[in-house]
Protein backbone atom coordinates (compact mmCIF):
# COMPACT_ATOMS: atom_id res chain seq x y z
CA UNK A 1 0.00 0.00 0.00
CA UNK A 2 1.30 3.45 -0.89
CA UNK A 3 -0.15 6.90 -0.29
CA UNK A 4 -2.23 8.48 -3.06
CA UNK A 5 -0.24 10.50 -5.55
CA UNK A 6 -2.90 13.10 -6.32
CA UNK A 7 -1.39 16.61 -6.08
CA UNK A 8 -2.57 18.58 -3.09
CA UNK A 9 -0.94 21.92 -3.72
CA UNK A 10 -4.12 23.64 -4.92
CA UNK A 11 -5.16 26.55 -2.69
CA UNK A 12 -8.81 26.54 -1.53
CA UNK A 13 -11.03 29.09 -3.20
CA UNK A 14 -11.95 30.72 0.10
CA UNK A 15 -8.33 31.28 1.11
CA UNK A 16 -5.62 33.77 0.14
CA UNK A 17 -6.84 36.53 -2.15
CA UNK A 18 -10.55 35.77 -1.60
CA UNK A 19 -10.48 36.67 2.08
CA UNK A 20 -8.35 38.65 4.44
CA UNK A 21 -5.22 36.92 5.63
CA UNK A 22 -5.76 37.26 9.36
CA UNK A 23 -2.71 36.95 11.64
CA UNK A 24 -4.22 33.90 13.34
CA UNK A 25 -4.62 32.21 9.94
CA UNK A 26 -0.99 32.82 9.09
CA UNK A 27 0.10 31.44 12.45
CA UNK A 28 -2.04 28.33 11.92
CA UNK A 29 -0.66 27.76 8.41
CA UNK A 30 2.89 28.15 9.66
CA UNK A 31 2.15 25.64 12.42
CA UNK A 32 0.78 23.17 9.87
CA UNK A 33 3.88 23.73 7.75
CA UNK A 34 6.15 22.98 10.68
CA UNK A 35 4.21 19.80 11.51
CA UNK A 36 4.34 18.55 7.92
CA UNK A 37 8.09 19.12 7.77
CA UNK A 38 8.58 17.32 11.08
CA UNK A 39 6.44 14.35 10.01
CA UNK A 40 8.27 14.06 6.70
CA UNK A 41 11.60 14.07 8.54
CA UNK A 42 10.30 11.38 10.91
CA UNK A 43 9.33 9.09 8.04
CA UNK A 44 12.72 9.61 6.40
CA UNK A 45 14.46 8.78 9.68
CA UNK A 46 12.38 5.63 10.04
CA UNK A 47 13.10 4.68 6.42
CA UNK A 48 16.83 4.95 7.06
CA UNK A 49 16.46 2.08 9.55
CA UNK A 50 14.47 -0.13 7.17
CA UNK A 51 15.07 -1.92 3.90
CA UNK A 52 12.98 -3.28 1.05
CA UNK A 53 9.25 -2.68 0.93
CA UNK A 54 8.96 -1.00 4.34
CA UNK A 55 11.61 1.54 3.38
CA UNK A 56 9.81 2.35 0.11
CA UNK A 57 6.49 2.82 1.93
CA UNK A 58 8.00 5.17 4.51
CA UNK A 59 9.73 7.24 1.82
CA UNK A 60 6.42 7.46 -0.06
CA UNK A 61 4.79 8.79 3.11
CA UNK A 62 7.55 11.40 3.41
CA UNK A 63 6.89 12.47 -0.20
CA UNK A 64 3.18 12.83 0.57
CA UNK A 65 3.95 15.07 3.56
CA UNK A 66 6.14 17.14 1.22
CA UNK A 67 3.10 17.73 -1.03
CA UNK A 68 1.16 18.95 2.00
CA UNK A 69 4.09 21.17 2.90
CA UNK A 70 3.96 22.71 -0.59
CA UNK A 71 0.27 23.49 -0.07
CA UNK A 72 0.95 25.58 3.04
CA UNK A 73 3.93 27.24 1.40
CA UNK A 74 1.68 28.31 -1.48
CA UNK A 75 -0.87 29.74 0.95
CA UNK A 76 1.71 31.61 3.01
CA UNK A 77 3.58 33.13 0.10
CA UNK A 78 5.77 35.93 1.47
CA UNK A 79 4.46 35.30 4.99
CA UNK A 80 6.39 32.07 5.49
CA UNK A 81 8.78 33.83 7.84
CA UNK A 82 11.07 32.04 10.21
CA UNK A 83 10.13 28.34 10.53
CA UNK A 84 8.07 27.59 13.63
CA UNK A 85 8.58 24.60 15.87
CA UNK A 86 6.02 21.88 15.26
CA UNK A 87 3.58 20.51 17.81
CA UNK A 88 5.45 19.05 20.80
CA UNK A 89 4.02 15.61 20.07
CA UNK A 90 5.26 15.74 16.48
CA UNK A 91 8.70 16.91 17.63
CA UNK A 92 8.83 14.11 20.21
CA UNK A 93 7.96 11.64 17.48
CA UNK A 94 10.90 12.84 15.42
CA UNK A 95 13.23 12.55 18.40
CA UNK A 96 12.12 8.97 19.07
CA UNK A 97 12.53 8.10 15.39
CA UNK A 98 16.13 9.33 15.37
CA UNK A 99 17.02 7.60 18.62
CA UNK A 100 15.04 4.36 18.55
CA UNK A 101 12.93 3.59 15.49
CA UNK A 102 10.78 0.48 15.73
CA UNK A 103 7.17 -0.31 16.50
CA UNK A 104 6.99 2.19 19.38
CA UNK A 105 7.60 5.12 17.00
CA UNK A 106 5.24 3.69 14.38
CA UNK A 107 2.50 3.49 17.02
CA UNK A 108 3.12 7.15 17.88
CA UNK A 109 3.06 8.04 14.18
CA UNK A 110 -0.27 6.26 13.84
CA UNK A 111 -1.73 8.45 16.59
CA UNK A 112 -0.19 11.55 15.03
CA UNK A 113 -1.92 10.85 11.70
CA UNK A 114 -5.22 10.20 13.52
CA UNK A 115 -5.04 13.65 15.14
CA UNK A 116 -5.20 15.46 11.80
CA UNK A 117 -7.67 18.37 11.75
CA UNK A 118 -7.63 18.85 7.98
CA UNK A 119 -11.19 17.55 7.63
CA UNK A 120 -12.54 20.53 9.59
CA UNK A 121 -10.06 23.15 8.37
CA UNK A 122 -11.38 25.37 5.58
CA UNK A 123 -7.87 25.98 4.25
CA UNK A 124 -6.97 22.30 3.79
CA UNK A 125 -8.19 20.43 0.70
CA UNK A 126 -10.38 17.35 0.83
CA UNK A 127 -7.55 15.42 -0.79
CA UNK A 128 -5.18 16.36 2.03
CA UNK A 129 -7.71 15.21 4.63
CA UNK A 130 -8.16 11.93 2.75
CA UNK A 131 -4.37 11.53 2.54
CA UNK A 132 -4.06 11.76 6.32
CA UNK A 133 -6.69 9.06 6.85
CA UNK A 134 -4.93 6.77 4.39
CA UNK A 135 -1.56 7.54 5.99
CA UNK A 136 -2.98 6.40 9.32
CA UNK A 137 -3.93 3.05 7.78
CA UNK A 138 -0.53 2.68 6.09
CA UNK A 139 1.28 3.30 9.38
CA UNK A 140 -1.18 1.01 11.18
CA UNK A 141 -0.22 -1.76 8.75
CA UNK A 142 3.51 -1.20 9.31
CA UNK A 143 3.04 -1.06 13.07
CA UNK A 144 0.98 -4.26 13.01
CA UNK A 145 3.96 -6.17 11.66
CA UNK A 146 6.04 -5.09 14.62
CA UNK A 147 3.22 -5.75 17.08
CA UNK A 148 2.85 -9.28 15.74
CA UNK A 149 6.57 -9.94 16.15
CA UNK A 150 6.66 -8.72 19.74
CA UNK A 151 3.18 -9.65 20.96
CA UNK A 152 4.07 -12.90 22.73
CA UNK A 153 6.93 -11.64 24.87
CA UNK A 154 5.39 -8.19 25.28
CA UNK A 155 2.11 -9.67 26.51
CA UNK A 156 3.99 -11.76 29.06
CA UNK A 157 6.04 -8.74 30.20
CA UNK A 158 3.07 -6.39 30.63
CA UNK A 159 0.89 -9.02 32.25
CA UNK A 160 3.73 -10.09 34.55
CA UNK A 161 4.59 -6.55 35.66
CA UNK A 162 0.97 -5.59 36.23
CA UNK A 163 0.20 -8.80 38.11
CA UNK A 164 3.28 -8.35 40.29
CA UNK A 165 2.35 -4.77 41.13
CA UNK A 166 -1.28 -5.47 41.96
CA UNK A 167 -1.02 -8.87 43.64
CA UNK A 168 1.88 -7.96 45.92
CA UNK A 169 0.44 -4.55 46.82
CA UNK A 170 -2.85 -6.26 47.66
CA UNK A 171 -1.01 -8.88 49.72
CA UNK A 172 0.98 -6.30 51.67
CA UNK A 173 -2.02 -4.05 52.24
CA UNK A 174 -4.16 -6.94 53.40
CA UNK A 175 -1.55 -8.25 55.84
CA UNK A 176 -0.62 -4.75 57.01
CA UNK A 177 -4.24 -3.83 57.65
CA UNK A 178 -4.68 -6.95 59.79
CA UNK A 179 -2.19 -5.52 62.32
CA UNK A 180 0.72 -7.84 61.53
CA UNK A 181 4.23 -6.68 62.39
CA UNK A 182 6.52 -5.04 59.83
CA UNK A 183 8.72 -8.13 59.75
CA UNK A 184 5.71 -10.27 58.89
CA UNK A 185 4.60 -7.88 56.16
CA UNK A 186 8.10 -7.78 54.67
CA UNK A 187 8.47 -11.55 54.76
CA UNK A 188 5.04 -12.01 53.19
CA UNK A 189 5.89 -9.53 50.43
CA UNK A 190 9.16 -11.27 49.58
CA UNK A 191 7.49 -14.68 49.67
CA UNK A 192 4.72 -13.38 47.40
CA UNK A 193 7.32 -11.97 45.02
CA UNK A 194 9.22 -15.25 44.68
CA UNK A 195 6.19 -17.53 44.58
CA UNK A 196 4.34 -15.32 42.10
CA UNK A 197 7.35 -14.87 39.79
CA UNK A 198 8.00 -18.61 39.67
CA UNK A 199 4.33 -19.33 39.09
CA UNK A 200 4.05 -16.74 36.33
CA UNK A 201 7.20 -17.94 34.59
CA UNK A 202 6.14 -21.59 34.72
CA UNK A 203 2.62 -20.73 33.59
CA UNK A 204 3.83 -18.71 30.60
CA UNK A 205 6.25 -21.45 29.56
CA UNK A 206 3.53 -24.11 29.65
CA UNK A 207 1.01 -21.84 27.90
CA UNK A 208 3.26 -20.76 25.02
CA UNK A 209 4.84 -24.20 24.64
CA UNK A 210 1.43 -25.84 24.47
CA UNK A 211 0.25 -23.32 21.89
CA UNK A 212 3.27 -23.93 19.69
CA UNK A 213 2.81 -27.70 20.00
CA UNK A 214 -0.80 -27.31 18.88
CA UNK A 215 0.38 -25.34 15.85
CA UNK A 216 3.03 -27.97 15.11
CA UNK A 217 0.39 -30.70 15.30
CA UNK A 218 -1.62 -28.88 12.61
CA UNK A 219 1.30 -28.76 10.15
CA UNK A 220 1.08 -31.41 7.38
CA UNK A 221 3.57 -34.27 7.69
CA UNK A 222 6.41 -34.39 5.13
CA UNK A 223 5.74 -38.14 4.80
CA UNK A 224 2.27 -37.41 3.46
CA UNK A 225 3.69 -35.09 0.79
CA UNK A 226 6.21 -37.78 -0.19
CA UNK A 227 3.33 -40.20 -0.82
CA UNK A 228 1.70 -37.99 -3.46
CA UNK A 229 3.23 -39.59 -6.60
CA UNK A 230 2.04 -43.04 -5.51
CA UNK A 231 -1.62 -42.13 -4.98
CA UNK A 232 -4.35 -43.76 -7.07
CA UNK A 233 -5.36 -40.90 -9.37
CA UNK A 234 -8.81 -42.41 -9.96
CA UNK A 235 -9.60 -42.81 -6.27
CA UNK A 236 -7.97 -39.46 -5.49
CA UNK A 237 -8.06 -39.76 -1.70
CA UNK A 238 -6.09 -36.51 -1.57
CA UNK A 239 -9.43 -34.73 -1.91
CA UNK A 240 -10.35 -36.02 1.54
CA UNK A 241 -7.39 -34.11 2.99
CA UNK A 242 -8.73 -30.83 1.66
CA UNK A 243 -12.27 -31.64 2.69
CA UNK A 244 -10.98 -32.29 6.21
CA UNK A 245 -9.34 -28.85 6.10
CA UNK A 246 -12.60 -27.12 5.23
CA UNK A 247 -12.99 -27.13 1.44
CA UNK A 248 -16.30 -28.07 -0.15
CA UNK A 249 -16.31 -31.48 -1.94
CA UNK A 250 -16.18 -30.01 -5.46
CA UNK A 251 -13.42 -27.56 -4.54
CA UNK A 252 -11.46 -30.31 -2.78
CA UNK A 253 -11.66 -32.58 -5.84
CA UNK A 254 -10.53 -29.79 -8.13
CA UNK A 255 -7.65 -28.72 -5.90
CA UNK A 256 -6.49 -32.31 -5.40
CA UNK A 257 -6.47 -32.83 -9.16
CA UNK A 258 -4.37 -29.71 -9.66
CA UNK A 259 -1.87 -30.82 -7.01
CA UNK A 260 -1.46 -34.27 -8.56
CA UNK A 261 -1.20 -32.97 -12.13
CA UNK A 262 1.50 -30.42 -11.24
CA UNK A 263 3.45 -32.54 -8.74
CA UNK A 264 7.19 -31.89 -8.32
CA UNK A 265 9.68 -32.83 -5.63
CA UNK A 266 8.90 -29.51 -3.88
CA UNK A 267 5.13 -30.06 -3.77
CA UNK A 268 3.53 -30.23 -0.33
CA UNK A 269 0.00 -31.28 0.55
CA UNK A 270 -0.72 -28.04 2.34
CA UNK A 271 1.45 -25.08 3.34
CA UNK A 272 3.14 -25.26 6.72
CA UNK A 273 2.47 -22.74 9.48
CA UNK A 274 4.13 -19.45 8.60
CA UNK A 275 6.96 -18.22 10.80
CA UNK A 276 5.05 -15.04 11.65
CA UNK A 277 2.29 -17.12 13.20
CA UNK A 278 4.81 -18.58 15.61
CA UNK A 279 6.24 -15.11 16.27
CA UNK A 280 2.80 -13.99 17.41
CA UNK A 281 3.09 -16.33 20.36
CA UNK A 282 6.81 -15.82 20.97
CA UNK A 283 9.19 -18.46 22.28
CA UNK A 284 8.21 -20.40 25.39
CA UNK A 285 11.47 -19.65 27.18
CA UNK A 286 11.41 -15.97 26.18
CA UNK A 287 7.87 -15.56 27.48
CA UNK A 288 8.72 -17.41 30.70
CA UNK A 289 11.85 -15.38 31.46
CA UNK A 290 10.10 -12.13 30.54
CA UNK A 291 7.13 -12.95 32.75
CA UNK A 292 9.36 -14.00 35.68
CA UNK A 293 11.54 -10.89 35.55
CA UNK A 294 8.72 -8.41 35.06
CA UNK A 295 6.55 -9.98 37.75
CA UNK A 296 9.48 -9.88 40.16
CA UNK A 297 10.27 -6.25 39.31
CA UNK A 298 6.62 -5.27 39.72
CA UNK A 299 6.21 -7.21 42.96
CA UNK A 300 9.36 -5.62 44.39
CA UNK A 301 7.97 -2.08 44.21
CA UNK A 302 5.42 -2.30 47.06
CA UNK A 303 8.07 -4.04 49.20
CA UNK A 304 10.67 -1.27 48.78
CA UNK A 305 9.41 0.98 51.62
CA UNK A 306 9.75 -1.90 54.10
CA UNK A 307 13.23 -2.76 52.82
CA UNK A 308 14.27 0.84 53.50
CA UNK A 309 12.94 0.76 57.06
CA UNK A 310 9.59 2.54 56.70
CA UNK A 311 6.78 1.25 58.86
CA UNK A 312 3.02 1.25 59.28
CA UNK A 313 0.89 3.73 57.41
CA UNK A 314 3.87 5.59 55.96
CA UNK A 315 5.16 2.41 54.30
CA UNK A 316 1.71 1.65 52.94
CA UNK A 317 1.28 5.15 51.49
CA UNK A 318 4.74 5.23 49.91
CA UNK A 319 4.32 1.74 48.50
CA UNK A 320 0.90 2.60 47.09
CA UNK A 321 2.24 5.77 45.48
CA UNK A 322 5.12 3.90 43.85
CA UNK A 323 2.77 1.21 42.56
CA UNK A 324 0.42 3.88 41.24
CA UNK A 325 3.22 5.48 39.23
CA UNK A 326 4.25 2.08 37.85
CA UNK A 327 0.66 1.22 36.91
CA UNK A 328 0.32 4.51 35.07
CA UNK A 329 3.53 3.72 33.21
CA UNK A 330 2.49 0.22 32.12
CA UNK A 331 -0.96 1.44 31.11
CA UNK A 332 0.45 4.31 29.08
CA UNK A 333 2.93 1.99 27.34
CA UNK A 334 0.17 -0.40 26.32
CA UNK A 335 -1.88 2.55 25.09
CA UNK A 336 0.95 3.91 22.98
CA UNK A 337 1.80 0.58 21.39
CA UNK A 338 -1.84 -0.20 20.66
CA UNK A 339 -2.39 3.19 19.04
CA UNK A 340 -4.94 4.14 21.71
CA UNK A 341 -4.95 7.03 24.18
CA UNK A 342 -2.09 6.50 26.66
CA UNK A 343 -3.84 8.63 29.29
CA UNK A 344 -7.06 6.59 29.21
CA UNK A 345 -5.17 3.30 29.31
CA UNK A 346 -3.00 4.55 32.18
CA UNK A 347 -6.01 5.66 34.24
CA UNK A 348 -7.80 2.39 33.52
CA UNK A 349 -4.78 0.41 34.70
CA UNK A 350 -4.57 2.54 37.84
CA UNK A 351 -8.26 2.12 38.65
CA UNK A 352 -8.19 -1.66 38.20
CA UNK A 353 -5.02 -2.09 40.24
CA UNK A 354 -6.06 0.14 43.12
CA UNK A 355 -9.55 -1.33 43.10
CA UNK A 356 -8.16 -4.82 43.69
CA UNK A 357 -5.74 -3.57 46.34
CA UNK A 358 -8.47 -1.60 48.14
CA UNK A 359 -10.69 -4.68 48.32
CA UNK A 360 -7.87 -6.71 49.87
CA UNK A 361 -7.07 -3.89 52.30
CA UNK A 362 -10.72 -3.81 53.42
CA UNK A 363 -10.66 -7.56 54.00
CA UNK A 364 -7.48 -7.14 56.03
CA UNK A 365 -9.15 -4.51 58.21
CA UNK A 366 -12.15 -6.79 58.75
CA UNK A 367 -9.94 -9.78 59.53
CA UNK A 368 -7.81 -7.73 61.92
CA UNK A 369 -10.84 -6.43 63.76
CA UNK A 370 -12.30 -9.93 63.99
CA UNK A 371 -9.07 -11.39 65.42
CA UNK A 372 -8.71 -8.53 67.88
From TrEMBL:
Entries under Pfam families matching the protein: VIT1
Keyword rRNA-binding: no
Keyword Membrane belongs to the record: yes
Membrane association type: Multi-pass membrane protein
Record key words, sorted: Membrane, Transmembrane, Transmembrane helix
Transmembrane segments: 154-177, 183-202, 287-308, 314-338, 350-371
Domain of life where this protein originates: Bacteria
Gene Ontology molecular functions: manganese ion transmembrane transporter activity
Cited InterPro entries: Ccc1_fam, Ferritin-like_SF, Ferritin_CCC1_N
Disordered: region residues: 1-23
GO biological processes: intracellular manganese ion homeostasis
Subcellular location: Endomembrane system
Any one cellular-component term (Gene Ontology): endomembrane system
Main location: membrane
PANTHER family linked to this entry: FE(2+)/MN(2+) TRANSPORTER PCL1 (PTHR31851)
Protein name in the entry: Rubrerythrin family protein
Amino acid sequence: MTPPSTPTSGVPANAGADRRRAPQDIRRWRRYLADERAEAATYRDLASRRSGEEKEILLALADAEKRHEDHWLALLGDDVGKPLRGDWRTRSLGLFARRFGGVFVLALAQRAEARSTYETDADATATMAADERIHEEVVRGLATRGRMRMSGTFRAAVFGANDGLVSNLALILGIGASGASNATVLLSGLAGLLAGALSMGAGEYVSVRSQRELLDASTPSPLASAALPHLDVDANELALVYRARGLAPDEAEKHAGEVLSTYTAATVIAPAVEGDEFETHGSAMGAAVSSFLFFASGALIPVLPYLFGLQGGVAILVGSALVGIALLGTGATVGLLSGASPIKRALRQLAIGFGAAAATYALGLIFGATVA
